[in-house]
TrEMBL record:
It is found in: Cytoplasm. Its EC number is 6.1.1.5. Coiled coil: none annotated. It comes from the Bacteria. Monomer. The keyword Transport does not apply. GO terms for biological process: isoleucyl-tRNA aminoacylation. Keywords: Aminoacyl-tRNA synthetase, ATP-binding, Cytoplasm, Ligase, Metal-binding, Nucleotide-binding, Protein biosynthesis, Zinc. It comes from Candidatus Nealsonbacteria bacterium CG08_land_8_20_14_0_20_43_11. Transmembrane segments: none annotated. Catalyzes the attachment of isoleucine to tRNA(Ile). As IleRS can inadvertently accommodate and process structurally similar amino acids such as valine, to avoid such errors it has two additional distinct tRNA(Ile)-dependent editing activities. One activity is designated as 'pretransfer' editing and involves the hydrolysis of activated Val-AMP. The other activity is designated 'posttransfer' editing and involves deacylation of mischarged Val-tRNA(Ile). This is isoleucine--tRNA ligase. GO terms for cellular component: cytoplasm.
Length: 432
């Protein structure tokens, strides 16, 4: 069999395409055909192209070629992404800046000018690669995200979306660095996990009920983030999970509600005393749905969080038996699942923590203004809930926790306000 030299073969075909203007002919010779318009999701030219770009572009190219073969007039428009984090990070590094605040000090306009200069650094490499991999795209008339025409188009689109009532303000819970003042992408979060040993807390949430079966009874819950406790507004239980009411070993004539599947784990951790099968059987068993709607005493007094729906037990579908007590302490603004549950239940969206990672002014218990993730602050929180009779036990817990890759600060899961487009409402039309 004859040896085939693939690179030579490819170059021969590329030359043929170029010399005969094949790409432009697929458009110019089909004036009457139906358009199929492709805008490339624009690459950033301040970095070298990599093999992953080749892969993504193969998919893009295949779809367009397929449409061409089906008789469409396929217009392929190139673009350059000149905005966003990749550009800013590169310039930050170059100028030795480490935070949003330092950029502001340096001057936003000056910083933007540096960014603008940097975005064309590897344009030539990109063009060479584009040509060599045989990716057909009109690079002579690209859209560039920093040009006023492009920006105005985006504004025009947003206005249209607003007029249709599809633009709305909401929160999104993000891994957030309170020192840098910025949310982190999942890629960035993945770079900063560290094993930490810290105090987690098992807590009593004392039930308020006139029903005799809930007198002198608390629901036991667990948290690894004591700083979220002032923001607690709900407890989540699995409606189909079996719960059991057992005696509180640390408080006479008192009872604790715990998910039955979690008991073994709690025995092993030494949180509660082992119970014999016989003994366990003698205590009341019930499904989580029975607990839904029960009210409990708030741990902290936060007037903004007091509504008719607050400080209640809600059913949820994210409860597991792998850790904790099968009851999840819910602080609406500090966890994605918490936020979703809060939205469904109509719970207040109020921050007890500032964007600087400190407790808000006016928070009771001497917590106002304190750095929330500081070990000293956690000690104060622990002693406060101990004074109030709600601390059941501290437990030293080892787990992976994310830190900011830039400044090593512990990240907080934090609800940040933002604008959203209600895509779900138009999904059906888009898929037809
Ligand atoms: Zn940071």
């Amino acid at each position: 069999m004859a040896e085939v030299n693939f690179p030579a073969l490819e170059e021969k075909i590329l030359r043929f395409w170029q010399q005969n203007n094949i790409f432009s002919k697929t458009i110019s010779q089909r004036r009457r055909a139906t358009n199929f318009v492709f805008y490339e999701g624009p690459p950033t030219a301040n970095g070298h192209p990599g093999i992953h770009h080749v892969e993504a572009r193969c998919f893009k190219d295949i779809i367009c070629r397929y449409k061409t073969m089906r008789g469409f007039r396929v217009i392929r428009k190139a673009g350059w992404d000149t905005h966003g984090l990749p550009v800013e990070l590169q310039i930050e590094k170059q100028l030795g800046l480490n935070s949003k605040k330092e950029i502001e000090k340096y001057g936003i306009e000056k910083f933007n000018r540096e960014c603008r200069k940097s975005v064309w650094l590897y344009k030539k490499d990109w063009e060479n690669l584009t040509e060599r991999i045989g990716f057909w795209i009109d690079m002579k008339n690209p859209y560039i995200t920093y040009e006023p025409e492009y920006i105005e188009t985006v504004w025009w689109l947003l206005k249209k979306i607003w007029e249709k009532g599809l633009l709305y303000k909401d929160y999104k819970v993000l891994p957030y660095c309170p020192r840098c003042g910025t949310g982190l992408s999942s890629h960035e979060v993945a770079q900063g996990y560290k094993k930490v040993k810290e105090n987690s807390l098992y807590l009593r949430f004392n039930l308020i009920s006139s029903d005799p079966q809930w007198q002198n009874t608390a629901i036991l819950s667990w948290t690894t983030t004591p700083w979220t406790l002032p923001g607690n507004v709900a407890l989540a239980v699995g409606p189909e999970i079996e719960y059991v009411k057992v005696p509180d070993s640390a408080k006479e004539n008192y009872w604790l509600v715990i998910a039955k599947p979690n008991l073994n784990l709690l025995f092993q951790q030494g949180i509660i005393k082992p119970l014999s099968e016989e003994e366990l059987k003698s205590y009341p068993h019930f499904k989580g749905s029975i607990l839904a709607g029960l009210k409990y005493q708030p741990l902290f007094k936060v007037p903004e969080l007091e509504t008719e729906r607050s400080y209640q037990v809600y059913p949820a579908d994210f409860i597991t038996s792998e850790e904790g007590t099968g009851v999840v302490h819910t602080a609406v603004m500090y966890g994605e699942e918490d936020y979703q549950l809060g939205k469904k239940a109509g719970l207040p969206t109020f921050h007890t923590v500032t964007e600087e990672g400190r407790f808000i002014e006016g928070l009771e218990g001497g917590l106002a203004g304190l750095e929330v993730k500081h070990p000293e602050t956690e000690k104060i929180i622990t002693s406060l809930i101990e004074e109030r009779g709600t601390l059941f036990q501290e437990y030293l817990y080892e787990h992976d926790y994310p830190f900011c890759w830039r400044c090593k600060t512990a990240l907080l899961y934090y609800a940040k306000p933002g604008w959203f487009i209600a895509m779900r409402q138009v999904k059906k039309n888009l898929l037809i």
